[in-house]
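Quick one - first record:
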Amino acid sequence: MLEIFIDGDACPVKQEVERVAARHGLTVHLVSNGGLRPSANPLFRHIVVAEGADTADDWIAEHIGQGDIAITADIPLASRCLAKGARVLRHTGKPFTDNDIGLALGVRDLQRHLREATGLQTYNPAFRKQDRSRFLNALENAVRAIRRSSANDRS
């Protein structure tokens, strides 16, 4: 059954996920190290994991399955979710895919190396209103595509 997993600590699109989940009756797992206000929506499961690097990522990677959706900007987590057959969306609506995850991991490592070598910080673009709208459309389309695919598999 299709479920949504949110890497919640730095996710700006929780309300958009809640709207889509409510429309489709989907369970959402909001995974964080704490400090987030839980949703009153009964479809939301707020999972608080222990402090520590990658504990939220590890929980998501252990519980996500084929046909689920992950919402994350974390490239290594995206890779782990794709390997389990899940779809993965960035909060901008752009998907991670099997075709581009290797390049994304390579660019991430290059940027880390440049930061270490130069001492300069790299920055991500600001999150904009258009990103929020693009995400909402991408999530809705992903849910519908998974449901169509599941229906075709049963017939």
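second record:
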Amino acid sequence: MKRKEQMEQLAEMTAAELKDQADALKESLFRLKFRKTLGMGEVVNDIRREKKTLARVHTLLNKKDGKTAEA
């Protein structure tokens, strides 16, 4: 999925959905790191992609929390 499409999809989510997405990404990162430790294939690019997606989710969560705090 391209970055712009991914950002549009994430921006449409509610704060609760973003929190669920963040939890799923953390779980995925844990599993990928475990696979890397065991030496099961090349997962470095997958780890990098998941980290970036998690950072995007946290950025959007902070923006949405800021809007609700100001209102």
